[in-house]
């Protein structure tokens, strides 16, 4: 997606479609690499403030990769450095084997980007925006953009200036996700959307990934990251503090149970992580499939047992305690 404030990038992107006529899936197979994005000791400073501070990250090719962190953690700065919109103070980043600073033009030819705050031409109708952005990007696909708009139930005959915030978000999604690029970067794509449309956007992400596109998915909604992503990274103060293989954390459960005062010294098996314990209740976490723990739980003598799947939240809380409940984790155990 191209912002008004980044209109200078439009000129970069007006390139011959003939040079991009090869099929995306074939290109992926012929130029297979282990990591399609590499970030090494990337630092971006504004005076004494470091928005990025020695950030290191790799994104496997063909994956859906989640970027997590509260506002100010450095996610958007990292994305802008990847796109070549910002020049890093030190370090480097590569996308599809290209230096994001020195070869930013070529990077933008292979990447489509949905910013967190989209700025569309307010006097254009939705269908005119689709036509414009489909024609300006070398990998634009107008028919696919129209199809996505229909799936999102967007009225493209309305002028952008008369669209609601959610409608403008749908339009931006249609323009960006219709581009058949090697890499797709989505910064909070489901913001301002109702639950039904959110689910459809996640389906579109899966379909793009199945076509061979590597997706970087930035969201504050932990449940979305768990549902759609293969890997994720947690950012804090401009650094990646943890990378996660989500296949390994989807089977983490938090258990809350009532105890009697006489059980205040209740001992847990060594495979269980205790979170808190007082005279009335105990809270602990279980790793692995729940079936592996049911026999022990049934013999424990605990009462009123409540079990919730928490996976990613448990890890996120270790780096940003107290924030997970405010960033979209839908669980009764907060």
Characteristic key phrases:
334 residues; 2 domains; alpha/beta; Rossmann fold; Alpha-Beta Plaits; disordered N terminus; disordered C terminus; globular; 6-stranded mixed sheet; 4-stranded antiparallel sheet; 11 helices; single chain
Describe the structure.
There is one protein chain. This protein is of the alpha/beta class and 334 residues long. The chain has two domains: 4-246, P-loop containing nucleotide triphosphate hydrolases (Rossmann fold, 3-Layer(aba) Sandwich); 251-310, Alpha-Beta Plaits, CATH 3.30.70. Helix content is 31%, strand content 27%. It contains eleven helices and 14 strands. The strands form three sheets. A six-stranded mixed β-sheet has the order 6-7-8-3-9-10, with helices on both faces. The protein has a four-stranded antiparallel β-sheet with strand order 2-1-4-5, with helices on one face. Strand 9 (231-236) and strand 10 form a beta hairpin.
CATH class of the largest domain: Alpha Beta
* Overall body shape: globular
The overall pLDDT average reads: 83
Instruction: Give the % helix.
Output: 25-40%
- Widest beta sheet: strand line-up: 6-7-8-3-9-10
Portion in strands: 25-35%
CATH H level, superfamily name of the largest domain: P-loop containing nucleotide triphosphate hydrolases
Order of helices and strands: HHEEEHEEHEHHHEHEHEEEEEHEH
Number of domains: 2
Q: Whole-number radius of gyration? A: 23 Å
Tell me the span between the first and last alpha carbons: 36 Å
How would a textbook summarize the main sheet? 6 strands, mixed
Query: Structural class of the secondary elements?
Result: alpha/beta
């Amino acid at each position: 997606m191209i912002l008004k404030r980044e209109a200078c990038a439009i000129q970069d992107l007006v390139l011959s479609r003939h040079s991009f006529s090869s099929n995306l899936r074939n290109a992926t197979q012929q130029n297979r690499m282990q990591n399609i994005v590499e970030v090494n000791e990337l630092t971006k400073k504004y005076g004494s403030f470091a928005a990025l501070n020695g950030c290191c990250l790799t994104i496997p090719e063909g994956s859906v990769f989640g970027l997590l962190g509260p506002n100010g953690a450095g996610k958007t700065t990292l994305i802008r450095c990847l796109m070549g919109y910002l020049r890093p103070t030190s370090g480097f980043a590569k996308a599809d084997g290209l230096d994001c600073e020195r070869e930013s033009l070529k990077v933008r030819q292979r990447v489509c980007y949905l910013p967190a705050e989209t700025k569309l031409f307010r006097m254009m109708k939705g269908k005119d925006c689709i036509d414009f952005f489909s024609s300006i990007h070398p990998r634009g696909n107008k028919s696919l953009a129209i199809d996505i708009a229909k799936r999102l139930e967007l009225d493209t005959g309305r002028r952008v200036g008369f669209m609601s915030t959610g409608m403008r978000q749908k339009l931006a999604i249609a323009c960006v996700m219709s581009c058949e690029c090697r890499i797709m970067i989505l910064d909070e794509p489901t913001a301002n959307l109702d639950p039904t449309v959110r689910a459809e956007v996640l389906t579109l992400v899966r379909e793009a990934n199945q076509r061979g596109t590597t997706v970087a998915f930035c969201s504050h909604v932990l449940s979305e990251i768990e549902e759609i992503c293969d890997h994720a990274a947690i950012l804090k103060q401009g650094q990646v503090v943890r990378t996660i293989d989500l296949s390994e954390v989807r089977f983490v459960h938090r258990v809350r149970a009532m105890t009697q005062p006489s059980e205040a010294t209740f001992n847990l098996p060594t495979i269980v992580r205790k979170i808190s314990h007082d005279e009335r209740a105990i809270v602990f976490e279980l790793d692995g499939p729940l079936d592996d723990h049911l026999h022990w739980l049934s013999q424990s003598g605990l009462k009123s047992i409540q079990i919730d799947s928490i996976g990613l939240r448990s890890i996120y809380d270790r780096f940003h305690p107290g924030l997970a409940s405010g960033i979209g984790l839908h669980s009764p155990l907060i």
